[in-house]
Amino acid sequence: MNFLIPSNTTSKISVFIIWLFHLCGMVGISYGNKDFFLAFTPINLFISFVLLFVNQKQLESKELKSAFLIFFIGMVSEILGVNYGLIFGDYVYLDNLGVKILGVPVLIGVNWIILTFITGSLSSFIFKNKYVSILMGAILMIGLDLLIEPVAPLLGFWIFDLQKVPLQNYLGWFVIGMITQALFQFKIAEKELTFSTHLLIINAIFFAFLNYQIV
Questions:
Q1: Do the strands 100-101 and 158-160 form a parallel or antiparallel pair, or are they unpaired?
Q2: DSSP class of residue 93?
Q3: How far apart are CA 213 and CA 215, in angstroms?
Q4: Which of 6, 80, 92, 203 could form a disulfide with 12 if both were Cys (CB 3.0 to 4.6 A apart)?
Q5: SS3 letters for 70-88?
């Protein structure tokens, strides 16, 4: 587990910030002014995104193009879902995730990048075969989504028309996740592990805790 220990100042500060922000959010949403802390969701997500890229080992045009393509795929799939009920089912985004394009918050596209990178990094560390890494990365994404979905309506993120998450949503996550994971595994030459794993762990803890406290 030595890879979880930040090795430089940037990594140490970044890991400290995401743990601080998420732990404060957990306590504030559960025991404090819920609306006040939820208002910081877009800021927290944006900071996580910036720190993720600050900590990347290599950021050249290929990596940046791949990240933008993941953003584009995520946004298009979500737009098709929100407006036509395709891929994920019938759902709408609520107001706590910021500015929207065709009904989808821009930060959702950013979140597709974050989730792909943090799950793909851990998967590639555990499984050296790229195809297995793609599969397991997509499964990790679904696992995190299983924690997010029950609390999403309560946090003002999104809600399905029938107020029940359909199986189609998880199948859609798997298909789109496989595509974005393939981009990550084949186009991102050097995977960053330490910060990505911390961000994955604290996200899992954050949503698991909220499932226990507010659902």
A1: unpaired
A2: E
A3: 6
A4: 6
A5: HHHHHHHHHHHHHHHCCCC
Please check whether residue 199 is in contact with residue 18, taking contact to mean a CB–CB distance below 8 angstroms: yes
Low-confidence ranges of the chain (pLDDT < 50): none
Residue 215: what pLDDT? 61
Distance of CA 206 to the CA centre of its chain: 12
d(CA 214, CA 185): 36
pTM score:
0.95
Q: b vs e for 155-182, b when ≥16 Cβ sit within 10 Å of the residue's Cβ?
A: bbbbebeeeebbebbbebbbebbebbbb
Q: What's the pLDDT score for residue 189? A: 87
Work out whether the CA dihedral 71, 78, 180, 194 comes out positive or negative: positive
Residue 105's DSSP bridge partners are 100
Coil, strand or helix at 101: strand
Distance CA 31, CA 152 (A): 18
- Name the residue ranges covered by the structural domains of the chain: 2-214
Residues in the chain: 215
Determine the Cα–Cα distance for residues 105 and 111; give it in Å rounded to an integer: 10
What is the Cβ-side half-sphere exposure of residue 201, based on CA atoms within 13 angstroms? Answer: 11
> CB of 194 within 8 A of CB of 9?
no
Beta carbons within 10 angstroms of residue 215's beta carbon = 9
Pairing of strands 104-105, 100-101: antiparallel
